[in-house]
Model the fold of this input.
Amino acid sequence: MIDVEAAVGMILEAESLTDGLNDEDADWLLNWGAERARQLIKGMTDQEAAGERVQRIMGVMRAAVAISTERVEHPAADQGAALQTLLTRYAAAFDRTYAPDAVSITDALSVLKGLSGVPLLEKLTQIAEKATAARPAAKSQPMPPENSAKPDHHNH
Done:
């Protein structure tokens, strides 16, 4: 069996993962990454595969930090590219499907701006979760707006 806490230690001890973040955001991100690593590698027996999982999670964390620490300096196109990187890495880390052409980066950035009161890193992980839902890439649908109402078919 894999020593889960030793693997999680790779995340907790990697100081570069939180460069540019304030203490609160850094703590949130480290806790998020550590918890995801615990969930994904628990019960694994292949040390190399577990290490690869942890590295993928760290890649997601780095992509989220890149967006959160550089968002003011970069135009929307660069933010869109950074968000695309985050979504691609998230899908790879968590065995999810991500079809870049099915998710409007512009819509995702709009959702990101609209989640007021939620810390940016948490917003990014929420968007990544929604944009990479386990579904076949060929049948992916565009991500609906956060507040889209579902039609009521009972009142005709």
Observations:
- The mean pLDDT is 76.
- The CA atoms of residues 47 and 64 lie 26 Å apart.
- The first helix runs from residue 4 to 12.
